């Protein structure tokens, strides 16, 4: 009986530790600390402008995938694109771009703290066009999540932003919609 009690306590402690670890991973946006890479995508022919696409990868990497789709779309439209992790050196200087797109995952109705923090750094600068996206992990659009994101973006930056939610199963179209709106 005593051994069973000890095993039960150990299992309980392990489960609590696991839950605390998962909560900390989300709350402190730990996945963003690995987003230090960047690459430049050059268009075929003469560039029509420059764009910066900044991402926080999240747990699944779907936000990085969406950022890659957006960067590729801008590149095919003639832009020189810097695709950069939110913690990269490239992401720190956003002053020379015509278009800036920032995105990452949405957890519990909010964009990650790294994306919100990055948007706050843009408050001193005037990007020509700003796009913000979140990946949701869902194939369903939630109006409450979109309204929450709008409020979060509005409180983080004083710039007008085109905002999109990238839904599972419709990533390519959602990313193309964001790009098309920014290029209007």
Give descriptors for this structure:
single chain, elongated, 184 residues, alpha/beta, Rossmann fold, 6 helices
Can you describe what's shown?
It is built from 6 helices and 7 strands. It is of the alpha/beta class and 184 residues long. It has a single domain, classed as 3-Layer(aba) Sandwich (Rossmann fold), CATH 3.40.50. Strands 1, 2, 3, 4, 5, 6 and 7 form a 7-stranded mixed beta sheet that branches. Helix 2 crosses helix 6 (171-182).
User: Considering the protein shown, what is the CATH homologous superfamily?
Assistant: Flavodoxin domain
Order of helices and strands: HEEHEHEEHEHEH
Shape: elongated
Annotation field: number of helices? 6
Concise summary:
This protein is an alpha/beta fold and 184 residues long.
How is this fold's topology laid out?
Blueprint: H1 2-27, E1 38-41, E2 49-55, H2 62-76, E3 79-85, H3 89-92, E4 99-107, E5 110-111, H4 113-121, E6 129-135, H5 143-156, E7 162-166, H6 171-182
Parallel strand pairs: 2-3, 2-4, 4-6, 6-7
Antiparallel strand pairs: 1-3, 4-5
